[in-house]
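anyone else get weird line breaks when pasting these?? whatever heres mine. first is seq + tokens for prot A
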Amino acid sequence: MAHGAPDYSGMKVDVVSRPEWAAKEATDKNFLGTATTQARLGSATVIYAVTSDEALYITQLACAIYATAAADADLNQMGSMRVYDATDGVALFVQGVNGGAGIPFNKSLVIPTGHTVWIQAYNLSNHNCELVISAGGYEK
């Protein structure tokens, strides 16, 4: 019975994506921001300055928006999430949501060295909401 790699060398190689490798090496970046009792246009914001000699690659983004008051729980929980390069003044991603959303990016959002990124969830409802924003990625 054969053992090892297909060529019988005993050598094995795995091909993994950069995000998987960053998680394995514990060099991945995970961000979480929360805000309670936010009125219309209130936000939960994570601010991160890329200060190393590497760029930040954001590979996933998610948010949750839910009513603060139980009486408003059956209403639409309208909002948006965005990734904003505050150094260049450019929105890299904006998505409207109702209650929340999550998205993996096939093409990472890139924040260059020396730039500051804002990762935000906004309440666009006519009632107070709780907000959660999260993002993940790595620096390279």
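and prot B, same format (seq, then tokens)
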Amino acid sequence: MTEAKQKVSFAFASVAVAPFAIVLISFALATAIPALSLFGDIAFVAYFIFSGPIGVAATGIAAIAVCVAFRWRNKSNAVLSALVAYAAVLICYAAYLAWWYATGQKLDTP
């Protein structure tokens, strides 16, 4: 039973963090390689989505999933490394959300 909990919690954490990691990686690639500016535009729009209520809730769910996976993780260094990377990605988004709300940013839509 414990091994099943480990696998399910790690899989759920991986799925929960995937959208955040994809946006962060695409934004970094678009910044490093100007020819990929389309990815940068998509990532920029995604940052506005992540700052709304749905994004805040998704960040919280992903953070809880990573915490649970940390608690039930196995002794594998690969799993531990992946969970640390997931936590680093979520820390970036938590810092972004803190900045977003602390500075009073808002998305003006037509």
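btw re prot B: The two ends are 52 Å apart (CA to CA). The chain has one domain: 2-102.
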